[in-house]
Input
Amino acid sequence: MWLINSSIGRKVVMSVTGIALILFLTFHASMNVVALISAKGYNMICEFLGANWYAVVATIGLAGLVALHFIFAIWLTIQNQKARGNSKYAITNKPEKVEWASQNMLVLGFIVVLGMGLHLYNFWYNMMYAELAGIKNDIAATDGVGYIADTFSCPCYAAIYVVWLVALWFHLTHGFWSALQTLGWNGKVWFNRWKCISAAYTTIVIAMFVAVVVAFAAGYRPADFNEANAEPTCVEQKECSMLPDCPMQKGCCGEKSQCPKVQGECGRMMGE
Output
């Protein structure tokens, strides 16, 4: 299969998976910005995704894209080193018009992967995985704003994330236009245009991520933050949970609309 057996095919795989990951980052950044506007709105998105089957399938697909991109990156690097042979040990001057990011894509890639591992631990493990595994944490699995505030209240985490995002910016600014060039959009007219577009697009996406990190690290909270993180208001949770099919089994009897059988009783306990 030429996608595996030829260097051009491997570059195509790198390009396609890279563009797919950029699109995901665009969605993720757009979603994160909602946390700056409305805690309830962001948590609604987290609940909509959560551990639902479509989110789990998308997560598996995303993991596959990351794995393919990383494996083929190492494969191409090893191939290039073999092609250079002994010349790679020679002392040479830095080639003209070659970007720093272009010469350090693998190193930047490793930093990105390490940062991704930390990100998965702080958020995915405590949210989607916790919901799938039935793990109970101090912060609810669907309380995305709560996890953002808790994570970035630590200055060390905030600093690490900013460094990670800077490395990701360097990686994407080169990878974006390079992928398009590999896929055939490499004419003389569009070459410089794609470089400008990739730099601008990547800067906007990364800036959205950084804005969330810096804002929450500085103590910013959306206006409805406390309301979104308020404790359930049911005053008789124990008695409510003893009723047949009470929504307390899913969290709080405040979710009475999901349980018509005990709607009136839960409403009475809540003073409604």
Observations:
- The chain has twelve helices and no strands.
- The CA atoms of residues 247 and 259 lie 6 Å apart.
- The chain has two domains: 2-84+100-228, 237-269.
